[in-house]
Amino acid sequence: MVPFFKRKKQSNKGKRQERDSSGSSKNSAEEKDFIGSSLAANVDKIRQKTGYSSDLVIRLINIGPQSEIKIAVLYVKGMVDSQSINDFLIEQIMKNKALQEKIMPNEALDIITEEAVALGGVKSVQDWEELFTVLMAGNTILLIDGINKALSASTQGGARRSVQESTTNVSVRGSKEAFTESIETNTAMVRRIINNPNLWTESMKIGKMTKTEVSIMYINGIAKNEIVEEVRKRLKRINIDGILESGYIEQLIEDQTLTTFPTVHHTERPDCVAGNLLEGRIAILVNGTPFVLLVPALFIDFFQSVEDYYERFDISTALRFLRTVTFLISLIAPAVYIAATTFHQEMIPTQLAIIIAAQRESVPFPAFVEALIMEVTFEILREAGIRMPKAIGSTVSIVGALVIGQAAVQAGIVSPAMVIIVSMTAIASFATPSYAVAISARLVRFVFMISAATFGFYGIILAFIMLTVHLCSLRSFGVPYMSPLAPFIPGEAGDTILRKPIWAYSKRPHLISGENKVSEGKHQKPGPPGPRNMTNHYTEKGE
Amino acid sequence: MNKLNRKAMFLFFIMISTVFISGCWSQKELNELAIISAMAIDKNEDGKYVKTIQFVNPGNVAGGLQGGGGGQGPAVTVYTATGDTILEAHINASAKVSRRLYHAHANLLVISEEVAREEGIDGIIDAFERDPEVRTESKIVIARDAKAGDIVKSLTSIDKVPSEKVNKTLLVTERARGENIVVSIQDFISVSASLGREPVISGFRIKGEPEKGKKMENVQQSELDATLEASGLAVFKEEKLIDWYEGDLAKGTMWILDKIQQTDVKVSWKGKKNAVVYNVIRQKTNVSADTKNTYPEMTIHVRAEGDIRELTTPVDITDPAVISDLEKEIEKEIKKQLEKAVTRTQKNNSDIFGFGEVVHRTDPEKWKKMKRDWDDEYFPYVNVNVKVDAFIRRTGLRTNSFHSNTEK
Q: Which of A152, A294, B66, B215 has its CA 20 to 30 A from that of B77?
């Protein structure tokens, strides 16, 4: 058996090497293809390359006294702000006095670049690949006959969703705005919160076809350099057709893929991103999605909401406890019910045991099958409810409530106690702030149910130990997933299930943040003014 | 393409097979269990044990449920089986019950007076202690003037399950009256195993006609034909029942055992009997031993606190002198109860008060010599001093009674 496995490993290694070498050879094969100087040829090539797409607008302008200089303005309809193209580009070129004189095409280029175009972000482009990338991103390209360069002006615009209230990370208190699909807006929203030059962003294009803009954002000095480097490396490694959502990136940069637990956090809220950046985390913004990724993500992060820090610490601590309990309920409530009613009836108080027994008298299935029926029914209802058109949604909930609530009980197929357990589990799973962890709990719940049905409480404990071991083995960008609980970091345990008062946060999480660890000055605890200030004032008056 | 690590797959299959091969080992659904609520042990004419098992009918107990039809039938069903041993009787019972007999919720064991008197109950208790499913916190009572089986066969109202009713009654009366004691199987075992102490167990009797108690009509009327009531303390000597204590005797015993939580003490005042009723709300009883002489000398010190709760004649209780006189009367009355219990118990040669244990604690060396024949040789001749301190703390919502004004 052993030699067999060895052989297997070797062959795997061989394959990996092969793949690496093929990748490097491809990179070296890439050669730059430069723009030619004939305008007609260039325009032709562009039209041909874009397949004569109808949304590509090519506007030809002639300038100079005898209209001898030909200029082509190219842009993609809908992706540009046509107002600014008309007002600041075409009009300016046509009306420019210097361009009306007799000049050479070279001079024309300079004049256009330096004087005529009243737009920011003007740069020259020399190779075709860059030209297409820039053009397809919503910029306007200017080609002049006789010059082997193109000019790009940033005119991105068109209809986009405006900044709206967050729908997935709702909070009672705190900023209401949420990210949009536009990466520029998103970056700006974070910058508006952290007005500091140390907030650095790095941009790159990922996706062979989509060329999606992806930015890394971190605070220089607070973020750990090794982690920033690791993020950079993992992002650069990505070589796929398209990035349609940050979920693609998430799945391609995870440390461990064989787990149901998320090791990358995502959020829709700029204040959440800002808070995490201040702790030394790194944000990954992806164009086209309002969900921003945050790494490294720890298990405990998924039980925290931004609002925890906006409320006072006693209330937040109580709420965090509640969330931990609800997570446990959503994980093991049906399993405990199954184990208690099929293996450990002696552990149920007599009165309750009699009530449950009475309810189960007419139920034809074992508790496990009963629980499975109810859980699966509920999952079906939930799934049906999410993707239903809103008009039909209410029908689903009515039918669902009747089916699992009443009819099933009246028909004697399930017991009322089971309905209570399943609904409690469902509500508990909604109380977990992070949808990502709630989903994994949904999945793991079935494992717990099976082990409870086979081994009772013993099985639950067994599954729980396995779960704990698994969670402890996970890492997010090299940071232990269960920290600061395992490994236990005493100073930071105050921001886990507990939430210590804001004035007690003197240090940043030490596994995540870089050199700059001090987040607060000393003596931040507020208090009443000293007795001297108060009493002297009054006694002096009195005397 | 075969990237799957075979070793991991192999391990996975081994783990999965532990789940499927073991199946649902020792799995038992709640509705496949016959939940036993009480058991009773009698003996028939052939000298065989008769085990009466009371099962809960869940559907009839949990009233108001859909499909349960709560309250239609009796809350419990009773089956009887015989055997030479307890276990045999138990196994024989399975021939009559369609479900698996489940002991874990049984909380009452009734033993008939006849069995307790004639052969003792230690042999019976062993079977219950040994069974992993039986709870040793189950309470024991002795069926007085009745068959143990009849006690568990009687239907009760309010608490529909008779075993619940017996248990709760015992608990309440121990607290409020102090003439009965709650004894569980493990309490009995620990006392019975001790050389310096003998057990007492509460008695239960059927007031009314046992035959009518088995019918549903019994619980469909305001006054039941057959009621279960706590009655007296059964005194044991060498595992056998030898005496019943009641009233003052039982109370005195409970005082010495430091089990009184609340009770009433009636006192005469100026020649009128039962003039003042004192309600004990707190007490502490200490028993100490002096082992200088051959026969140890025991001192029982009672410190009781309570309220005046009833005045049948006008007494000026606003006068501190009267209060201290009353306290003295109360002390005398309590002392009388204690002494009565001591005298009777010494006559029975059965140390239910645990004096032997006190001697053991005080003088372990001397106890070694005495322990073998403590009950017969030493305990009856022990000199017992009773010291009572009683305090009147409050007089209820009134000071003097309203009828002390009308007297004048």
A: B66
